[in-house]
């Protein structure tokens, strides 16, 4: 699976109707709804959309005939193996009816072209961990953690006896990293996560 690095847009005209696709990375349904409200154009005839976050997905035809807009947009997302992605395709009607097949091709094609142009990253499920340790163990643990690909350090806070490190690691390596920290500190570190 892949996710978008940043928002992308693509615009085209099809038989005098203007189509604008905006693709955004999203992490939750609430964020998808907020982004949808942000990028929808109230003055347009239709703001059709779809999003996928893991196994959850939603789509809307926003007044277009059933199955001609939202579902083709979702198929464009799935066709490029994207996750945590919202795509909104806005249409300004140009006076020429496209028919069901034409609408499916227009919405799905506009979304797919936009997504092909987007910068993508392979999506890695991460687990959050927090480690409390003394100053004597801090340098060694930080040096060893720096060697792990895919580790994202979120926060480092200090207190009178040591520090607390909060970070995210690829889910399949969380147990291994936890064991490593316990070994490096001879069991002195406290791990939450």
Give your account of this protein's structure:
The chain has 193 residues and is an alpha+beta fold. It is 33% helix and 37% strand. Strand 2 (8-14) and strand 3 (17-25) form a beta hairpin. The strands form three sheets. Strands 2-3-6-4-5 form a five-stranded antiparallel beta sheet, sandwiched between helices. It has a four-stranded antiparallel beta sheet with strand order 9-10-8-11. The protein has a two-stranded antiparallel ribbon with strand order 1-7.
List keywords for this structure.
193 residues, alpha+beta, five-stranded antiparallel sheet, four-stranded antiparallel sheet, 5 helices, 11 strands, elongated
Which regions are unreliable across 5 or more consecutive residues at pLDDT < 50?
A: none
Largest sheet: 5 strands, antiparallel
| Strand order, largest beta sheet | 2-3-6-4-5
What is the rounded Rg? 23 Å
Mean pLDDT: 93
The class by helix and strand makeup works out as alpha+beta
Helical amount: 25-40%
The global form is elongated
Instruction: Calculate the terminal CA-CA distance, rounded to whole Å.
Output: 25 Å
Number of helices: 5
Which helices and strands appear, and what pairs or packs with what?
Blueprint: E1 2-4, E2 8-14, E3 17-25, H1 29-39, E4 46-53, E5 56-60, H2 70-79, E6 85-92, H3 99-117, E7 120-122, E8 126-134, H4 135-146, E9 152-159, E10 162-170, H5 174-184, E11 190-192
Antiparallel strand pairs: 1-7, 2-3, 3-6, 4-5, 4-6, 8-10, 8-11, 9-10
Helix pairs in contact: 2-3
Question: TL;DR?
Answer:
With about 190 residues, the protein is of the alpha+beta class.
